């Protein structure tokens, strides 16, 4: 058959092998961050073939649909692209602040933001941190 | 190939209609649309209904009340673009020869949630982080102030214009003027956006009748030709995205102008997706009304109101008219129909010949928006 290779898997093998649902709501076994030497890193993933990254970690590449996502760590430093403090919510305590953080490898992640003024500007250097409630970002300490 | 014409339109005044069901909201809009088209319920050959929160079989629940049955009916959710997606499906039904008379309905009842922000899908990882629609636009607004060296007063001017337009619209939820000071002093929702910079919670319904060229000629009906009908989805990325440049709206507008054979400079009015003040500014640029970077001055110099380049949101837009999400795309088409057929009353855009509608919807991780629709209309010759 055109396009087949000598070591291709037996015809139709993937139909059953790849059939299981993805447990993307299994938060109890998911570990979103790692703390090491005082620094916090996000447990993200990257496609071995396309280089496309994802956080939270995924099993399938969002660009090419390849099933070759491998774990990577991202952080601890990033830049806060923009942010907003939310004052109305039916599901969580307000106010809270969220914002998009761009990491040096190109990954963008929506983060909980702590320790910035509601009217702060954009492009603020931030670092990852975590406590019992989970991970978040705070403004990076200025170097002296 | 046949052309598609809108020959009838109707809607109910938007507001908090807690005593009405989905069919209670939509039936008056349907009957007005049929009456203005000069057709009977039994003439309808296909029904498309857009909604986001109507539940199962919304179209059937509505039209069974007025004697329409057996014909194909589809119900479509595409977040805020649901109604406009139904309009797109109805247009395709006629273009592809499946029907000659299509009833398109947009309807939603947001008071069922008791107020607050729109409930997004909790399975989404960004929603799990606390994402709500005002936050998407709050972040856009923050970036706009940063990149464009603008002040929040520019944002507030959008609401002032919307309320001024809405004042003349008997179908608008808000019909009173406001001021920049009042807008900025209203309570914070998602910084830097305040309450009067956000579309209200409300209920509404709208309906239009679409027909083929041949059917319109048979009726001898006036109307509005659908010159372009474009539907796009977003493209997910896990990397950088310029929040002031929503690709989905740029692409949709580009394709719509190409399909219609005319451009933004030819428009007399537009009803665009001003769910929040910043949205209108961003979409001036995305829809080609002004060059990128000039939205603030375009607004402040009066080019988007009566006497300007084109009238943007003569209805008052989503900010003043209201935004029952799945209804909005059809309500925009109704507004355009009234202007292009000279029936818009005190808010009539003088000598209106061509118009655009734009609605884009959905907070979804990795995409600028989930769906976007752009329609272009021209008064039928």
UniProtKB/TrEMBL annotation, chain A:
Pfam families documented for this protein: OB_ChsH2_C
SUPFAM superfamilies: Nucleic acid-binding proteins
ChsH2 C-terminal OB-fold domain segment(s): 73-126
InterPro entries per record: ChsH2_C, NA-bd_OB-fold, Thioester_dehydratase-like
Chain segments annotated as transmembrane: none
Name of the protein described by the UniProt record: ChsH2 C-terminal OB-fold domain-containing protein
Organism of provenance: Pseudoprimorskyibacter insulae
Automatic annotation (TrEMBL), chain B:
GO biological process: lipid transport
EC number: 2.3.1.176
Keyword tags: Acyltransferase, Lipid transport, Lipid-binding, Transferase, Transport
PROSITE patterns: THIOLASE_2
Gene Ontology molecular-function annotations: acetyl-CoA C-acyltransferase activity; lipid binding
Record InterPro entries: Thiolase, Thiolase-like, Thiolase_C_2, Thiolase_CS, Thiolase_N
Lineage of origin: Bacteria, Pseudomonadati, Pseudomonadota, Alphaproteobacteria, Rhodobacterales
CDD domains: SCP-x_thiolase
Designated name of the protein: propanoyl-CoA C-acyltransferase
């Amino acid at each position: 058959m055109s396009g087949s290779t000598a070591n291709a898997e037996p015809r139709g093998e993937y139909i059953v092998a790849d059939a299981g649902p993805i447990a993307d709501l299994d938060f109890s076994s998911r570990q979103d961050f790692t703390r090491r030497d005082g620094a916090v890193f996000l447990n993200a993933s990257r496609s071995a073939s396309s280089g496309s990254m994802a956080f939270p970690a995924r099993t399938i590449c969002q660009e090419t649909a390849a099933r070759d996502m491998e774990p990577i760590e991202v952080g601890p430093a990033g830049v806060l692209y923009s942010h907003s403090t939310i004052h109305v919510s039916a599901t969580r305590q307000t106010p809270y602040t969220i914002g998009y953080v761009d990491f040096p490898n190109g990954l963008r992640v929506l983060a909980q933001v702590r320790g910035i003024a509601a009217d702060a500007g954009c492009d603020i250097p931030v670092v990852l941190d975590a406590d019992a409630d989970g991970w978040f970002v705070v403004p990076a300490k200025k170097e002296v | 190939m046949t052309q598609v014409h809108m020959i009838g339109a109707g809607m109910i005044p938007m507001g908090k209609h807690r005593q009405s069901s989905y069919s209670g909201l939509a039936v008056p809009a349907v009957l007005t649309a049929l009456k203005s088209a000069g057709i009977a319920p039994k003439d309808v050959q296909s029904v498309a209904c857009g909604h986001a929160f109507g539940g199962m079989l919304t179209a059937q629940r509505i039209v069974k009340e007025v004697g329409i049955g057996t014909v194909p009916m589809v119900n479509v959710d595409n977040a805020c673009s649901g109604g406009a997606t139904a309009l797109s499906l109805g247009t395709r039904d006629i273009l592809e020869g499946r029907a000659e008379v299509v009833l398109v309905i947009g309807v939603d009842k947001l008071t069922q949630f008791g107020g607050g922000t729109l409930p997004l899908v909790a399975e989404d990882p960004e929603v799990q982080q606390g994402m709500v629609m005002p936050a998407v636009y709050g972040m856009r607004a923050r970036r706009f102030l940063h990149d464009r060296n603008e002040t929040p007063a520019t944002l507030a001017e959008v609401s002032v214009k919307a309320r001024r337009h809405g004042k003349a619209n008997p179908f608008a939820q808000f019909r009173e003027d406001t001021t920049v000071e009042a807008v900025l002093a209203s309570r914070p929702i998602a910084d830097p956006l305040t309450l009067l910079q956000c579309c209200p919670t409300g209920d509404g319904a709208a309906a239009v009748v679409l027909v083929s060229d041949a059917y319109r000629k048979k009726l001898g009906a006036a109307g509005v030709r659908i010159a372009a009908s474009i539907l796009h989805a977003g493209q997910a990325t896990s990397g950088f995205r310029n929040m002031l440049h929503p690709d989905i709206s740029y692409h949709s507008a580009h394709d719509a102008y190409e399909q219609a054979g005319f451009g933004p400079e030819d428009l007399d009015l537009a009803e665009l997706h001003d769910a929040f003040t910043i949205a209108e500014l961003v979409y001036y640029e995305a829809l080609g009304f002004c060059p990128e970077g000039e939205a603030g001055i375009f607004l402040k110099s009066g080019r988007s109101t009566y006497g300007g380049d084109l009238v943007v949101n003569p209805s008052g837009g989503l900010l003043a008219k209201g935004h029952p999400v799945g209804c909005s795309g059809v309500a925009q088409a109704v507004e355009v129909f009234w202007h292009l057929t000279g029936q818009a009353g005190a808010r009539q855009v003088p000598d209106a010949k061509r118009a655009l509608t734009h609605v884009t919807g959905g907070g979804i991780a990795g995409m600028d928006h989930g769906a976007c629709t752009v329609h272009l209309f021209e008064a039928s010759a």
